[in-house]
Amino acid sequence: MGAEMGIKTEQGDDRRGPDGKQLLDLVFLEARAKLIDIAGILDRIDRYGGAEDYRLRAFYRALEELSRPGGGDRARRVLTTFSDPTDEPVDSPLMHGATGAWPGGEKE
Amino acid sequence: MVSRTTDDYLAMVTAGCRAVCEPAFWAGYDRKSVDGFYDYFCQLTDYEPKRAAKFALPHFSWLCLNPKEAEDTGLADDVLALIPQFLDRPNVLGIGEIGLNKNTRNELSVLEKHIDLAARHDQLILVHTPHLEDKLKGTRLIVDAILGDKRIEPARVIIDHVEEHTAPLVLDKGFWAGITLYPESKCTSARAVDMLEMYGRERVWLNCACDWGVSDPLAVPKTALEMRKRGHSEETIDRVLYANPRRFLLQSPRFAAVFGDEGMIFPTVPSGKRSLSPTRDSF
Asked: Is residue A55 located within the same domain as residue A29?
């Protein structure tokens, strides 16, 4: 990157790279493709009869977070949407692995 | 790396990796007896260093019972009693990766016993945080458990697999934060660099997932490319990918015995193109 592109980050480091518009130029097509891929996945699920599933409902809640105005913490908010918000350890595991979304809230 | 072929060691050395750090982890199945762990610890501390040495790659390991196997508390106690006899082996860095998997009471109890073991033997700690929906809660429980033992200095603990919603919880308490890179499903190189930019890079290191699933032992060197694309300097890249993990690991006398004299082992590897490549367990 040329010196004319230099900006300072919050850490005051020596990064001399793209500004927001230049970054958009670099990543827009990648982001667009990922978004359309998600649209295709959701269409596919619908076309195959849909799914009444806590993971899918959590996914749509996460999409709402994605659409809310910035603040620079969309990734954190999306991750939190999928997370178990409780504080106490559980007595025994319901399953060995993780599914990607917390089902507990819908059982209450 | 017991789950990988030697092709990976060759690729890592070629890409500038200076050392590999392998935590004790899940075998892809639950072991049935303490004898299985004895054999595994021998593999991590004897055979695997020799396999890596054929590629001039120093191999280090961490020892523990992985949280995925912590529900059997009787077996856990047997394994905890086994670990001290391995702690003096020359490639052992400390206790890890301990932590939680599904945030159960038994897992938490075994975690506390591992913390006690580390404190009694003055060992560094590497912590596994749960994945996906269990990570946020698990990270909170882990942070509380470690801070609850006043013998443990947070600066001697790295809490691994942080993401955007957990990195501040870890860093704000004085721990090191590990960002584990995956080619799919979890944290990408791009998000890892986002976190460096948002949360600072003073006590952060990056590591590759190198496990039984889809994972990439070159994920750390590839993250250097992402940093270059964004305009980070070669000095910054070297500091994050090499100097940071080295700085944490020099707290281990066994690591310092090999890396205390920086630059003397592979002096032909240029700054900015080298990395320590801590690996990690399965998902």
From this structure: no
Radius of gyration of chain B from its Cα atoms, rounded to whole angstroms: 17
Question: How much is the ipTM here?
Answer: 0.90
The count of structural domains within chain A is 2
**Residue of B71, B135, B200 with shortest CB distance to A93:** B71
Q: What would the pLDDT profile of A55-66 be if each residue is shown by its tens digit?
A: 999 999 999 999
Domains parsed from chain B with CATH numbers: 6-280 (3.20.20.140)
Q: Flag whether A106 is in a domain.
A: no
- pTM for the predicted model, two decimal places: 0.92
Residue A73 counted as domain residue: yes
Token look-up 């749509």 returns A60
Q: Nearest CA to B135 among B155, B108, B164?
A: B164
Domain that holds residue A57: 51-85
| Pair (A44, A60) in one structural domain | no
**pLDDT per position as a tens digit, B164-205:** 999 999 999 999 999 999 888 789 999 999 999 999 999 999
- A3 Cβ under 8 Å from any chain B Cβ: no
Other CB atoms within 10 Å distance of the CB of residue A61: 14
Choose among B107, B165, B232: nearest Cβ to A15.
B232
Query: By the CB < 8 Å criterion, does B282 face chain A?
Result: no
d(CA B137, CA A86): 7
Q: Is A9 on the interface with B (CB under 8 A)?
A: yes
CA distance B164 to B226: 18
Say which of B108, B164, B230 has its CB closest to residue A18: B230
Which positions in chain A touch B133 (Cβ < 8 Å)?
Answer: 82-84, 98-102
